[in-house]
Design a protein that fits this description.
This protein is mainly beta. The protein contains 1 helix and 10 strands; from the N terminus they run αββββββββββ. It has an 8-stranded antiparallel barrel with strand order 1-3-4-6-7-8-9-10.
């Protein structure tokens, strides 16, 4: 979790750079896109513990409507993280394969301007998450595990919005992204289930269309 917070603090200097004064970003239909640095939490199953995933970058796209201080939007997120290692019966061994996470979220965001250019936001969202585990294997574990599963995804977000023009803004934020239980089965054996979670530092653009 430390790395995303460090990146968030470092990038926050961009938001505080001086610019020409104008009113905060306007209301209306908007689209946007963003990139993130994602740090997944470790997994724990009944028989396999402390499964570590590698940090990676992710992407997102949004379409929504700004009602003033409230925004409603639909967001598409994509994450891909490789497996690093795991503990099998007390022995930690390298693990190959990766996890892909494609999540569609309905978000509700509250945004509050604190100057003519700068605002803060906080929000939450939920929706279906398609989780794909591909080629999870290790020399300490008999088998090769791949699985697709649709679960419930959810998130919490917070950050800063900088209004560049009346219709264009940049946001710098933190995201907690989670998904409910992903079950591991291999060769008829049930190894248990785990929740999915990650911490992210994000930088994005939002454009008011009309």
């Amino acid at each position: 979790m430390k790395k995303p917070l460090q990146y968030t603090l470092a990038l926050s200097t961009l938001v505080l750079l001086p610019a020409n004064s104008h009113a905060f970003i306007g209301d209306g239909l908007y689209i946007g896109a963003g990139m993130s640095y994602d740090a997944p939490q470790n997994w724990n199953l009944d028989a396999i513990k402390n499964i570590k995933l590698k940090d990676n970058v992710g992407g997102s796209g949004i379409i929504g409507y700004d009602w003033g201080r409230i925004r409603t939007e639909v967001e598409l997120l994509y994450r891909r993280n490789g497996f690093q290692d795991a503990r099998f019966g007390g022995i930690t061994a390298p693990v190959t394969g990766h996890l892909e996470n494609v999540t569609v979220l309905a978000n509700l965001i509250y945004e509050h301007p604190i100057t003519q250019r700068l605002g803060v936001y906080v929000g939450a969202g939920a929706g279906p998450a398609v989780l794909t585990v591909k080629d999870f294997s290790s020399s300490s574990w008999a088998g090769n595990f791949s699985r697709d599963e649709i679960t419930l995804g959810y998130q919490g977000v917070a950050g800063l919005t900088l209004s560049l023009t009346k219709s264009l803004s940049v946001n710098l934020g933190y995201r907690y992204l989670g998904a409910t239980d992903l079950r591991f089965r291999n060769g008829g054996i049930d190894y248990g289930k785990t929740g999915i979670a990650s911490h992210s530092a994000e930088l994005g653009l939002r454009w008011i269309m009309f």
